[in-house]
Amino acid sequence: MNVNKISLLIFGITAITFSSCVVTKKKYTALQNKLLVAQQDAASCENASARLKSDNKILSVSLVSKEEFIVDLKSQLADCKKIRDKQLTTVGDLTVLTQAANDNIKETLAQLERKDKYIHLLQAAKTKADSLNLALSVNLKGVLKDGLDDKDVDIKVDKTVVFVNLSDNVLFKKGSSDLSTKANEVLSKIAKIIESRPDLEVMVEGYTDSDPIKNACNRDNWDLSVRRSTSVVRLLQSEFSINPNRLIAAGRAEFNALVPNTTPENKTINRRTRIIILPKLNEFYDLLDPKNSPE
After folding, report:
1. In this structure, are residues 251 and 229 in contact, taking their beta carbons and an 8 Å threshold?
2. pTM of the model
3. Residue 153 confidence (pLDDT)
4. How far apart are CA 237 and CA 235, in angstroms?
């Protein structure tokens, strides 16, 4: 091979070698650039992954918080339901209580109305009784005062009854249960009043003073007081035809005195016969019957 050919061959090899080196370097540079880009992309991915992990952690915490919040809300809702149910029960109880209270008020008003009617009834009965007793008292005073001393007769009206106190000087001798002629006159006037009022009963009570008495007829003051009252009752029945069913005889002896038995004058006052003119119990109860209440 000649020198020219060898030179040309060397030049070719050198050119090829140089050309190969030049290409390889370019590729290398390109690869390096790609590698750098890839590294940058990898770093970006890692950063993104880190951010995603952080966000995921935040979301997890937030989710837990929300779940806890939901549980708390459910608990509050349960408490609210309990309070509501309790309030509903209370309202129900109050409704029942209000109804019961309303019924009680109605019953109380009804009772007050009945009591009010009964009060009016009592007032009417009292007014009627007072009117009857006043008329009776006036009549008795009118017929008994004639021919009698005021000190011997005392007529009083007390509540629903009329009391006629007659001194023993009018009816009896001292220590005796025998009626005098004067007593017959007095009792005849009382009998006329009693006879005109068949709706009344008559109780005759005998009284003595405190001086003890004992004789063939009387063992003590009890005997004398009872004998005096029975003498009056017998006379009203036998002489003046007063229905004995309307007559009551009673003796009080020296008890229930009007004044102390300390002087002769006081003893004279206490020696008396009391005639009590009062409504029959059944008729008096009729006056109090609510059915007879005035409207």
Report:
1. yes
2. 0.53
3. 79
4. 5
- Per CATH, the homologous superfamily of domain 123-291 is OmpA-like domain (3.30.1330.60)
Query: Using CA of residue 63, residue 69, residue 75, residue 78, what is the dihedral sign?
Result: negative
Closest Cα partner for 266 from 211, 203, 206, 219?
Answer: 211
What the block records as the tokens of 80 is: 């609210």
Q: Where are the domains of the chain?
A: 123-291
DSSP character at residue 271: S
Q: For 109-140, what is each residue's pLDDT tens digit?
A: 777 666 666 566 556 656 666 666 666 666 66
| CB-based contacts of 214, cutoff 8 Å, min separation 6 | 220
Task: Locate the DSSP E strands across 61-160.
Answer: 153-158
Tell the residue number behind the tokens 């109860």, with chain if given: 285
d(CA 63, CA 287): 90
Q: How far is CA 52 from CA 48, 61, 65, 209, 267, in A?
A: 6, 14, 19, 129, 130
- Rounded distance between C-alpha atoms, residue 139 and residue 158, angstroms: 16
What mean pLDDT is predicted for residues 89-104? Answer: 66
